[in-house]
Amino acid sequence: MTSSTNGSTINGSTWRRDALIAAVALAVLVSLPFVANKGIVFVAGTLALHVVFGLSWNLMFGQTGLVSFGHASFFAIGGYAFAWTAKMFPQLHPLLLFAGAGVLGALVALVVGMIALRRSVGVYFAILSLALSQIVYLLLSYTPSLGQEDGLTGIRRPLLSLGLTTIDLARGDNYYYFMIAMCTLLAIGLWWVVHGSMGRVFKSIQQDPERAAFLGINVQGYRLRSFAIASGTTAIAGALYGPWLQLLTPEIAHWTFSARPILYTLLGGVQSFWGPVVGALCFAVLEYGTRTLHGLSEIVVGCILLLIVLAFPGGLLGGLSRLGKRMAGKPAVAAKPELAR
Amino acid sequence: MSNDFSRRQITKSLAVFGAASAFGSFTRPSFAQGQPIRLGLISPLSGSQEVIGRYQLAGATIAVNQINQAGGVLGRKIELVTRDDKAAPAAGVAAAKDLSGNGVNLMLGVLSSGVALAIAPTLQADKSVLVVSAAAANELTHDQFSPNVFRTADHAYSRQRALAKLVAGDYPAVSDWTAINPQTAIGTSNWDSFVDGMLQFYPELNKKDPKITDAIWAKFGATDYKNDIAQLMRSKSEGLYCGVYGGDAVTMFGQAAAYGLTKKFKVLVDPGSEFIIAQAMGKNTPPGLWSGFHWFYGAYKGQKINDDLYDAYVKMTGDKYPAGYVGEAHTSVLAYANAIQKAGSTDTDKVIAALEGLEFDSCKGMRKIRKEDHQAICDINFVQFGPDDTEQGWKITDFKVIKDEGLSEAPAPGQPLKFLYNKKG
Amino acid sequence: MLAEFLSPLFNGLFSAMVVFLFATGLTLIFGILRILNFAHGGFFMLGAYLAFTLVRLIGGDMSIASYLLVSIAAGIAVGFCGLVVERLIFRRLQHVDEAYSLIATYALLLISEGAVKAIWGVSFHSATTPSALGSAVVVGDLVMPVFAIFIIALGVLCYAVLEWILQHTAVGKLMKSLASDPWMAGMLGINVPRFYAWIVVIGFFLAGLAGGLLLPNQTLSPNLASVFVVQAFGVLIVGGMGNIRGAFLASILLCVIDSYGSIVFSQVPGIFFYVAMAVMLLARPQGLIAGARL
Q: Is position C17 within any domain?
């Protein structure tokens, strides 16, 4: 599991295994409204967005070694852009608006990245992204037309006209299914980027940027590409979030939200494509499980996270696979993931 | 954001009670006679607003206990199911979905306006009702009106206009007012509502116009107010509306002490920090500070509901100073009890019909829920604080009850609030 | 007139020293161990609450001496927590990438918030400024609280002491060599793990000390943990990778710019700190003091 992308070619077994995992996850998500109550369905829908959020962050980090502490600002840019245009121009097709939010997120990332990535890398870029995201956060909470810190209210779930039929996403669980479908497409897109030819170049940059540059790879260019793709994907996830919650507040641009994909990835494991998925699932389960422990939830969640990171220092997936190998009697591989550059 | 303030710690037994009642709620409901009626409390029970959530939990718990001791409603006991909204919209929606998913269709509580505005549009599809016990944003009964939302507490517009009426009447010599406000939606709306009240009541009572000087806007949650204080020290105004509230107000007044800010202004008012400032600052409490209250127990001494609630609160927590949130959560439970009794059912539509136009008695006297916009018309309470030589360090120097006679706007559900006098707002 | 120009400068300097005092321990740990300690604010808060309890226990009016002693005591107590954290957590994570310690410090932040709530409750508290520091110096129409002057002086003193230790003592030289090349330092016979433990303890001590010193300036609530953290990360990096001198300069620069910015553009208070931060990082991508560690 630690090396699902090591070969960097889409070999048959990786493809089959990942498709199987995805199919099982999808089956669970699709059947959820029939077996679980609305509370759990809401948590699952939100989790799907967080998964895309985490996967896209790890596209930068796990693939090209780029650390962003401000990823939430793209979630917010996508969310606010969609909600605001949907309110001002209700005649526009919602799919167009979702795509537009993604393009906007990617464009902003391109402009920021062209200036910033040339100048700064590593922790400097991380803190630069933190500063920019704080500016986005404060501007959102100060702008009267965006509702200040009360946010944009009354965001409608749109009508989705698909040529022959029109689906009212406001009815029943329609929006949930729409969101699951969109998130699946986004996740497949990210998987394809990671495992395709661009992913191979990304991987070589992550492993040794200097060597990659020596081999004639435009390291900055590829980092910029991963930044733009990740930001565009996140912006679409943000756009999906508005109608889901029917409200957007500046909190989604706050640095504590930017910390989420980082925590998901590190908790789940950087090396595997599925790391952020496992991390996000873990957080959702922890939060749902502690929701009635009034006053104790911080300590309980904190202690569990601490135990996990001490037991599986390299992320859950890496740790579990080592454990599995040891149980199977194979020699354990001492994995020391190299991340920071 | 509603008002985010706080007070003394409530005993651990309360938290344990809350947790226990929450755990007891996983079974699917049955509506057979004799089964308890379950009310869902959505409240910040962790995170930055937990201190208020504990008040709401205490008030609702006391109301439920009192009703059950008196034989329940329709012969059925009431059971409180609590959910944490962390004062965050997403967590609030998750809490409401969780409650309705578990068959709890009648909800109350909610401190933060952001959470209330997030939950409101989801209720109709889930066939649930929410009775808001604190969130004060005007939008809730205006632009963002939902037929499934009621508010049994006072709202920003009526509270701030009541405050203006108080100072216009009691301090006729102070005609020049300024403010220090947080740069937030509720900060803006509070100040605009106060100015609206000043422009109406000051001329009515004193036959001359007040002077309103531009407010100073501070970052919400700021750690340093020295620049703002320095600007205020150069102001010519005599009345200061301190719109920064709760912990921010404590920080601001703490840093202002060295400048002599509280001596410079003749009147200091606060939109709704309740006991927070005095309890945090003790001997440094700004003398003569008027603070807005959801409910002040001292103003209704001798009235049974008030006294019973106060005694039960002190007995339960050992704390002598219940914040207004205790009373407002208590009131929301009473509203449900009255409405369910009147409807003879816990069915969502029937309870909604019964809540509309409901008149009922509460810890601060009779309240009426308007049929049109679901806003309760009720008293508004203010308390004046000052420093004291006792161990506690502060004391209550005065209090006022302002009746809502011409304070609230005419109902206009679905439409933005129009200010009567303040054209800027 | 004087006040309009000078008071933002004075207040900016004051904020700068607040942020700098907060950031010293963070800078030290990041400079040497490369751990970005999310929990720093949590332990700063713990120091503030401990100092608050001590002040209550002593009772009466606080003298400057007891204020300083209380702060040092809070620092020592938090430093001890640092020892525990180092033994139980950081040491176990030293063989994996530093990034993973981020989850551990995030978990610690949650635990410290929960612990503060369990011990002191969730309501707001505030402590009085020692009465000797409670007045203000007035020059023309410029009002300067004595407490603010005191904090500015403390910040400068703290900087001077740290700078002296780093530049002129054997320990400081050791720290610098360790920061730039731990492997080499290990080869030279230095007990690197023990040295790391000391750095963590000192870093935590500085967090607790700052908590005590800034107690009269801040409202106590469990939210205090995340109040300064982002600004501190900013000065840490703008200064140049955990460089004490850089952090000192960066906090002055960013806070003074923010102070003037918030006056001139009063509709967007607090935004100029981050604007200045972004501009600085683009103008000097390696930080104000590039290259030098600590």
A: no
Domains of chain B: 12-154+298-377 (3.40.50.2300), 157-294+380-402 (3.40.50.2300)
Contact partners for chain B, using 3 or more CB pairs closer than 8 A, are A, C
Q: Please indicate if any CB of chain A lies within 8 Å of the CB of B48.
A: no
Alpha carbon distance B182, B244 (integer Å): 5
Domain ranges (residues) in chain A: 12-327
Cβ atoms B148, B210 nearer than 8 A: no
Instruction: Assess contact for A168 and A254: CB atoms under 8 A.
Output: no
State pLDDT tens for residues C77-135. 999 999 999 999 988 887 777 777 888 898 999 999 999 988 998 888 888 888 888 88
Tell me if C95 is assigned to some domain. yes
Range of the domain at C84: 23-222
Residues of chain C with Cβ-Cβ distance to A314 below 8 Å are: 96-97, 100
With CB atoms and an 8 Å threshold, state whether A150 touches B53.
no
> Between helices B304-317 and B50-69, what is the axis angle to 10°?
120
Q: Do B22 and A251 touch (CB under 8 A)?
A: no
The answer to whether B223 contacts C11, with C-beta atoms less than 8 Å apart, is no
- Nearest by CB to residue A153, choosing from B94, B144, B184, is B144
Strands (DSSP E) contained in A29-168 are 152-153, 159-162, 165-168
Q: Tell me how close the Cα of B299 comes to any Cα of chain C, in angstroms.
A: 24
The reply to whether residue B18 touches residue A294, judged by beta carbons under 8 angstroms, is: yes
Q: ipTM of the assembly? A: 0.89
Strands (E) in B23-67, as ranges, are 37-43
Question: Taking CA A251 as the corner, what is the angle to CA A246 and CA A252, rounded to the nearest 5 degrees?
Answer: 70
Q: Quick check: is C244 in a domain?
A: no
* B182-200 confidence digits (pLDDT tens): 988 888 889 999 999 999 9
Topology, domain A12-327: ABC transporter involved in vitamin B12 uptake, BtuC (1.10.3470)
Q: Cβ of B185 and A150 within 8 Å?
A: yes
Residue to mutate among B16, B178, B180, B227, with most C CBs inside 10 A, is B227
Locate the DSSP E strands across chain C.
136-139, 142-145
Whether C16 is in a domain gets the answer no
The number of distinct structural domains making up chain C is 1
Q: Is B56 within 8 Å of B43 (Cβ atoms)?
A: yes
Cβ B219–C125 below 8 Å, yes or no? no
Rounded Cα–Cα distance for residues A133 and C159 (Å): 30
**pLDDT for B175:** 94
